[in-house]
Amino acid sequence: xxxxxxxxxxxxxxxxxxxxxxxxxxxxxxxxxxxxxxxxxxxxxxxxxxxxxxxxxxxxxxxxxxxxxxxxxxxxxxxxxxxxxxxxxxxxxxxxxxxxxxxxxxxxxxxxxxxxxxxxxxxxxxxxxxxxxxxxxxxxxxxxxxxxxxxxxxxxxxxxxxxxxxxxxxxxxxxxxxxxxxxxxxxxxxxxxxxxxxxxxxxxxxxxxxxxxxxxxxxxxxxxxxxxxxxxxxxxxxxxxxxxxxxxxxxxxxxxxxxxxxxxxxxxxxxxxxxxxxxxxxxxxxxxxxxxxxxxxxxxxxxxxxxxxxxxxxxxxxxxxxxxxxxxxxxxxxxxxxxxxxxxxxxxxxxxxxxxxxxxxxxxxxxxxxxxxxxxxxxx
Length: 380
Fold this sequence. Notes:
The chain is α/β, with parallel strands linked by helices. It has 12 helices and 15 strands. Helices cover 28% and strands 19% of the residues. The strands form 4 sheets. A 9-stranded mixed beta sheet has the order 4-3-5-6-15-14-11-8-9. Strand 14 and strand 15 form a beta hairpin.
């Protein structure tokens, strides 16, 4: 991800709302979002960088501390205040190395930012990257129903998003699933979510749901809905919704190798896991390998895949990314009565045609959408 910042490879491309697998999706346009996260939160060094840059007053504070950097050498995709943008997944601390900011100045800058009033214009600007547009789907009866979600406000790697979508649609064709695709956060309401057995987050990055949408999503999961997420859906350096990384995903991203970024490694399968029957005991593949700050086993996750760190170099982003002999990269968990699955595999588009990974994702979607008894006894 950081390599993409430096090379400015990411284009700001939005996917339109689309209906797939024979379904139509017509957006019901709503009023602008007024319940976006951090709408009324005071400015600080912990604010999303994009919100600081959207404010002339906050931008002036930063420009004084780091003259000429915010409007100078940064690549457009990083400096953009139009999403998707890296600035949506960074705070001032994380952005400091890109804008040449001396961290010793951070307390002083934070104090100055906190003095600024949050104006009505600031609130409108903060909420503009969220939406209340509710898609209306014409879903067939008698099929497993999946919502493929693709709203991305942070880092967007278009080739991987497109490859993942194609893979999930091919799975749907093979299995007779009904898949609806949208990039609208407005789909996350109780009535719409009730139509689906599971939601798939396709490399989602950045904060994308309003407060009411977050609540509807949490209730969907806890009351028995399924959740499947791949790669970038747990790859942001900063989150502004603790429940998502800490409870739903169960681990926070710490980094990935940079020398080189993409490496071959051995993937080891926990053969006792319920989803292991479609997989060999191990295989080797090339991808961008994530490390996490904590092990998802801490929150009760059942780890399916681990990495053999002796088979690649887990260093990069200026840090040692070793997690030791237990380096999870795919796991399941129960969130209330809901089922979650996450796999860190998936930066390289080729991974979505790699046989073992395709078998893994296909089994995971089937499990998350259909195995209603898997988490029925859970009290989490």
